[in-house]
Batch of 3 targets.
Target 1
Amino acid sequence: MSDFNDRVIVTGKPRGTISKYQPLVLFLTPLLAILFQIYVPRFVAYLAFLDLPLLVTIYFAFMRRSPIAGLFLGAGIGLVQDALSDQPLGMFGIVKTLVGYLAAGFSQRFASETAMLRIGVAFAFYLGHQFLYWTLQRALLGLPVSFDPGRVLLLGVLNALVAAPLFLLLDKLRDRG
């Protein structure tokens, strides 16, 4: 036997564990976020800036730490959001699929327990989501939509600030056993 078979080599610190949730939590939380996104701005117009389905996609993809699970989660949330909104079917599905995949891949490299990292990630993925959505509208649908970077940055900051307490609330829904 060689020297390498007799010992275990540990490199780096562990980056956290995969969080587990009840199936009902994984179903109801995105559904409630989508319903919030669709119905609440009709009654309270100044809450239209919130993109709760995106924040829920980022959170669950981050905490599950599996790019494949993040991909399917993002696709599911995006397609349900498309089906319940007046947007063309598939636009949110494509963008949230990419966000779910990338967020889960990012979480494999970095621990996601710090509030500042969560705020930064929510901000960055909001900007990426908006840019991808704008690109798809122009490239796939040929719509002459404008992209206002100042407005997107401001909404990104607001969504990131909402993400911090939302993620803490969703942390309480994790299975502890």
Target 2
Amino acid sequence: MKLALNHFSIRTTNMEATRLFYEATLGVTVGPRPAFPFPGLWLYNGSHDDVANALVHVIGIDLNDPEGLKQYLGERDLSSLKGSGAVDHIALFDTGLEEKLSQLRKSGIPVRERTVPVIGLHQVFMDDPNGVVIELNYPAQEKTALDAKLKAQG
């Protein structure tokens, strides 16, 4: 058996901020979603023709009518929805470090970076509007090349 990440879901009372964050940071786009009995969005990485590309499922919490969500996915205490809870972070592989860092700076999204040389990985961490930690992983040689470019530019 070979496992791969299908999607991750974020419960939120602020779907708009959550959508904007993931569109800006991951480049995903809103696509088709089944008519569940609660508000939400599916954000796709690639073609909207394949639900396997629906990487982020945003689960909206309607404070005025939470019954559909409670019946479908169960009730959760709103105070437990801040941060990553028991999940420490969600990590994704990516390429194009220079472009991504530029995009994040322009969007005003603060990041934390570190390189793990022993495995050749450069990590970029950020927090979504709900406090969930997102980690983007790049080949460490992209960071080395970017540092050399910046140094040459003075």
Target 3
Amino acid sequence: MAEGKLFYVIGPSGSGKDSLLRYAREHLASDPGVVFAHRYITRPVELHGENHVALTEAEFDARLAAGLFAMHWASHGLRYGIGREINLWLAKGCNVVMNGSRAYLEEARRRYPGLVAVLVTVAPEILEHRLRARGRETDEHIARRLERARQFARPSGCVEIIENDGELAAAGEHLVGLLNAGRKRAAA
């Protein structure tokens, strides 16, 4: 059985990664060969945000000490982890899709050399509108996120680009197409 592919989706906060992942998840729900990894985050669950597993700092520390994370990082005062279950899914030939961190990409590539990086881009004015509309950050936090997005250089190596400036369905179908193409490659 061929090893599955890891699709590592990145982009600035507000680029629409959660919406794209939700779109792809809904459209691939009946495909047992594509699995969407939950992130473990030290942030309470939000009704309209990412479908993640909320952990306290103590819970996160305990899982980290037990070696239960395949990957973990800190960003914007929060801690994020991806469970080791992804290794089982990959070994079973499933393609795994995850919401990653731009800053952690090189370490993720070191751990998973066959990783497919997927960068979600969005125009600066749309990014600012989305950040303000979600109402999660202060003006100061939004300004920092916008500055960080401006300074972010496209990662080196092979990166698939999804422009998410327009209708969700267009960018969503692009992501679904990448995952389907990856599925066909993994099965070959």
